[in-house]
Amino acid sequence: MRVTDLLWLWILLGVLVVVGGGAALLVPRARRRRGSTTEAPAPVVEAPPAAPAADAAVAEPPVVEPAAPAVETPEPVAGRMVRLRDRLARSGSPLGARLLSVLSRDHLTEDDWDELEETLLLADIGAGPAGELLDALRTRVRVLGVRDAASVRALLREELLKVVDPTMDRALATRPATGDDGAHVPAVVLVVGVNGTGKTTTVGKLARVLVAEDRSVVLGAADTFRAAAADQLQTWGARVGVETVRADRDGADPAAVAFDAVRKGRADDTDVVLVDTAGRLQNKAGLMDELGKITRVITREAPLSEVLLVLDATTGQNGLNQARVFGEVAGVTGIVLTKLDGTAKGGIVVAVQRELGVPVKLVGLGEGPDDLAPFDAGQFVDGLLG
């Protein structure tokens, strides 16, 4: 073999050794890849937020207090009856219009007088007052011979005013007093009446009347048998900044609530305590017991200044029956007539005064919060006549 051939043989062997060693090195790696399992990546641990510096201010969420209800300013009491009188006049009161229409006729026959009597009776004026009014009108029409509209109106106004009786004392006894021991004693007004007459609403409106006269007031929610009564009264009071004393549960003792209200009125030097009572009229004995207990308990702290009976003016003779019962049981000192809309029921003012012998002191005409006014006989009659 030639030298050149041996040289090439050695070169070929060297190449094979090099290539074989590289393959040997590569094979184990490949095997390790095929036989290996996929390892889960290491979890990423987030660093906690850095603690604030000791002197750093920590932001607190703002505390939002509920807004207090806006306190309203009631309308002045002066002029309320004028507004109500004008509303009566605008309603075209059938009572006044019918009376004027008949009295203005040229010749009044017996049929005309019968028509006048029927009109008065339908107006719930009552048989006694109606007879008195007709007798007076008959005499004066014959003597004076009046026929023109202005004279007839003046005559009718004068006679109507007599039966409404402007001489009655219609002032509310709401002045506080001083006890024998020199302590402050508030005026206490007990409000009674059957449910549905607007009694609780009337108490709320009366509170507005007193606040308009710069009197301080405490309300006593002693109608504990009607679930919404205390809530309703409290809402009325809150609107004019007046506090309401109420029970913590329905059906609580009404006398206890009334007593607490009067005691608070004394402690706070309040001018007037208004006590709303339940309007249940199941039977006379039950009513007498309940109101009697309330009265006895209240008078341990302060005497009653007023007992106001709330009547619905549209109930007519039924309202008079209610008035009789309450008059015998509660010692009523004044009447509040609600829903006095100037229609054919205006005569109830006269009838209820005659029945109980006590005056109408307040009248309600309309649904507004300030549509309660001290009664004025002259303006009422003017409103009926238009």
Outline the fold blueprint.
Blueprint: H1 3-35, H2 80-90, H3 94-103, H4 110-122, H5 127-144, H6 149-164, E1 177-178, E2 184-185, E3 187-192, H7 199-212, E4 217-222, H8 227-239, E5 243-245, H9 254-267, E6 272-277, H10 284-298, E7 304-312, H11 317-330, E8 334-338, H12 348-356, E9 360-364, E10 372-374, H13 377-385
Parallel strand pairs: 3-6, 3-7, 4-5, 4-6, 7-8, 8-9
Antiparallel strand pairs: 1-2, 9-10
Helix pairs in contact: 2-13, 3-4, 4-5, 5-6, 6-13, 7-8, 9-10, 10-11, 11-12
Subcellular location: Cell membrane; Cytoplasm
Subunit structure: Part of the signal recognition particle protein translocation system, which is composed of SRP and FtsY.
Protein name: Signal recognition particle receptor FtsY
Give your account of this protein's structure.
The chain is of the alpha/beta class and 386 residues long. Among the domains are: 80-164, SRP54, nucleotide-binding domain (Four Helix Bundle (Hemerythrin (Met), subunit A)); 177-332, P-loop containing nucleotide triphosphate hydrolases (Rossmann fold), CATH 3.40.50. It contains 13 helices and ten strands. It has helices at 3-35, 80-90, 94-103, 110-122, 127-144, 149-164, 199-212, 227-239, 254-267, 284-298, 317-330, 348-356, 377-385; strands at residues 177-178, 184-185, 187-192, 217-222, 243-245, 272-277, 304-312, 334-338, 360-364, 372-374. The strands form two sheets. Strands 5-4-6-3-7-8-9-10 form an eight-stranded mixed sheet, with helices on both faces. It has a two-stranded antiparallel sheet with strand order 1-2. Helix 3 runs antiparallel to helix 4 and helix 9 (254-267) packs parallel to helix 10 (284-298). The longest helix is centred in the first third of the chain and has 33 residues, at 3-35. The protein is globular. The termini are far apart. GTP binds at residues 193-200, 276-280, 338-341. The chain crosses the membrane at residues 6-27. Involved in targeting and insertion of nascent membrane proteins into the cytoplasmic membrane. Acts as a receptor for the complex formed by the signal recognition particle (SRP) and the ribosome-nascent chain (RNC). It is found in: Cell membrane; Cytoplasm. It is a peripheral membrane protein.
